[in-house]
């Protein structure tokens, strides 16, 4: 079986329009940007991490951002490989502007045309775990030798439906999200377009070892502690690793009162000694289907450059977990986790080469 490497990455998020700008902004701890729905809508007044660009037309904005991050990831080296498009909201923003909605095939064909993509194209939509599941599908193909290159593209752009839906479920914070925080009151949504170029023929700083996706739909809008444990156990078994081989876990920890507690319980149940933890949701918001790709692009760059998020809130001591205040020493193996609607629990394992 072939080794699979992260050969390129691109990111546009609230911190910046590329990976470098995002890391610089994170270092300086930039403030919130916000988006408000129309007056009277459920999502009015909630903070939102939006991408700072001037294009207002959804389709043109999406095209520009997708092409930008694909170039940054070096997508020209992979266009005969497989393209995985990971998204939850698809083109809802365009529909809200009066454009006729697209089915999956039309949406995929449009993005493939923007990238001049010559290889197969797949759409992965498993709520917030979409990007990580796309990475695992790409990893399986690359590892088997069926293809040599793949591009995982996470696309999540602003729309009223998503914001209002989360607000109606009373899941949003009116301020900054507080992962594992004593006074956490909900999550903050955000936009992101991210590209991860995976390759079995080109080495990179990071190697993808594998991952796992566990679905427990008993609570369709929340996580399950037993599923969190099963997810970690399955991922470690798939990668042939013991629990103490993990040097850092990027947790979901979006600031939700219930889900943060469930995730913390799963971590306590799984690990005799919990590895250092990091959350990026307070920095870029929760980008749903694009979250996994966006957070991996940002986290790997942060580890390479010694940059770390600051949180500025009191930790909930009753959870029995805490976020690392500084870059951990000698991080070699990282788990990146996303928990999502529908009972999805996904994690992937990366090793610094």
Give a quick precis of the structure.
Mean pLDDT is 93; it is low at 36-40. The protein is globular and about 50 Å long. 32% of the residues lie in helices and 19% in strands.
The CATH topology of the largest domain comes to: Peroxisomal Thiolase, Chain A, domain 1
- The fourth-level CATH homologous superfamily of the largest domain is Thiolase/Chalcone synthase
Uncertain runs with pLDDT below 50, 5 residues or more? 36-40
Give the overall silhouette. globular
Largest sheet: 10 strands, mixed
Output the structural class: alpha/beta
Percentage of β-strand residues: 15-25%
State the CATH class of the largest domain.
Answer: Alpha Beta
Helix-strand topology string: EHHEHHEHEHEEHEHEHHEE
Please count the beta strands (DSSP E, at least 2 residues each): 10
Average pLDDT for all residues: 93
**N-to-C CA distance:** 17 Å
CATH architecture of the largest domain: 3-Layer(aba) Sandwich
Number of domains: 2
Computed CA radius of gyration, to the nearest angstrom: 19 Å
Determine the number of helices (DSSP H or I, runs of at least 4 residues).
10
Range of helix content: 25-40%
The strand line-up of the biggest sheet is: 3-2-4-5-1-6-10-9-7-8
